[in-house]
Input
Amino acid sequence: MLTTSNGKLFNARATSTSAVAGYHPSDLQSAYKLPSSSVGGGQTVAIVDAYNDPTAASDLATYRSTFGLPAASTCSLASGRIVSPGGACFLQVSQSGSTGRLPRSNSSWSQEISLDLDMVSAICPNCKIALVEASSATLANLGTAENEAAALGATEISNSYGGDASSSDPTFDSAYYDHPRVAITASSGDGGYGAGYPAASTYVTAVGGTTLNPDASTARGWSETAWSGAGSGCSGYDAQPAWQAANPVIAAVCPWRAEADVSAVADPNTGVAVYDSYPFQGQSGWMVFGGTSVSSPITASVYALAGNAAALTYGSYPYSHTSSLNDVTSGSNGSCGNALCIAGSGWDGPTGLGTPNGTGAF
Output
């Protein structure tokens, strides 16, 4: 069974926007200099998760209304594809594309689902959102949901789950994650140094994590360091793509697929506000979450704002547009002794090439 990548910090109930703990959409848009209010309307971001969240639609509506984001209508389907004309919409389907026969509910995964949906809304409020729910947390079912997301017409797909890398990964790559003209992101994991899958797939953008803080001493107004929990590593099974082979830092430390490629906020201590009303272990309502479950949907949504997915060659684009990334140069996630776990100038494992500075690297 694969696990989610979220790392919950605490439950923070609140009744007003100003009292909701955690970073709000405006904070994330400011930190990453994003044109969230003006673009993204032609894009469909799909979220792939396991099991059903029975309150997904109503919780999403609460999050969006609390922060003044446009309401999302129900997406329309024609011949199995989303066809809604313009404006934000939301669709919830099973891994077979059914809107009426959804998987059994799971309160733990519902928190993951709420987190993912809220982050897409925060970064790309004009995007269409498709939630594709796998029947269980096996790679076969999650992979089937991945294929369904692509079949629905998703332009971006976010995956906030993972497991250990294995010799089967190249087979899974071709079966589930090879979708040209779709930008696919995957969480690098929350256990520190060590490669995971599907983040190690050649066909995805592996997303690491940072600690993000306001910082008036910088021109940006924010500063970031590598989050100690961010996953990273050298696959050992997936071949190194050409865009990584051309990077001298990666070439010196890993002859295989290395992760991560890019990053965004993930530290639970500098986490994001999420609304989930389906109780898990007695907790519901407003909560603060961290983990690379935050950074993956953020990055997929930045791809959506850029609107370039149809022209991309898998995860190569950031490697030729590093000037549009914030290079994260301090922090670590382990004791490997090199760039696979220690942040530095240019590429490093915990944060990849850096975090979004606008949409130019996506």
